[in-house]
Amino acid sequence: MRILKLDIAKITGWAVMDDEISPKALIEYGFKQFWDREAINEGSKVATMFNFVNDIIKDYSIKEVWIEQLNFFRNAKTTRSIIQQQSGAHMAALNNGIVSIEVPTQSSYRKQAALTQVKKLYPESTILQMDICDAIMIGEKKG
Questions:
Q1: What pLDDT, in 10s, does the model give residues 73-103?
Q2: Would you state the pLDDT for residue 62?
Q3: Cα gap 14→89, rounded to integer Å
Q4: N or C: which end of the chain has fewer CB within 10 A?
Q5: CA nearest to 4, candidates 87, 90, 117
Q6: What is the pTM of this model?
Q7: Which residues contact 135 (CB under 8 A, 6 or more apart)?
């Protein structure tokens, strides 16, 4: 089953995984910056994320969307922006009739630990962007 994993932040990391291939196959990945001039008002943040996720769902035949749970920030503006983007991702999944779930943050996979773990799991990859590594590790067991 194809799963889209999203680490939503100022720079959103994403990964398409297939859990029917052993070990779990990394199909595609990337990152996108959303909080620049393209998403000035609140409604366009939701719409921009909706369109982005909707395109990935269609391009890769996604069956589930996993979104990293929000870590509450002291900054209300940042928290509001992330919630808006999460809403767009959930709406895209709903629009395509697929499940979207929020997955707890795996704190052991923050920062450099996520990059190290991704290199261990996918030694042939050249992924160096932290937001992508965080997305890949969403929902993975510590180890």
A1: 677 877 888 888 999 999 999 999 999 999 8
A2: 97
A3: 12
A4: C
A5: 90
A6: 0.86
A7: 5, 6, 7, 12, 13, 14, 15, 29, 68
Whole-angstrom Cα distance, residue 13 to residue 136? Answer: 8
Strand pairing category for 99-103 and 64-68:
parallel
Average pLDDT in the chain: 84
> Domains of the chain: which residue ranges?
2-137
Which one has a higher pLDDT value, 120 or 12?
12
Length of the chain: 143
Q: Please tell me what DSSP assigns to residue 37.
A: G
Lookup result for tokens 């590594």: 133
SS3 81: helix
Reduced 3-state DSSP string for 55-79: HHHHHHCCCEEEEECCCCCCCHHHH
Tokens of 52: 């982005």
| CATH top-level class of 2-137 | alpha beta
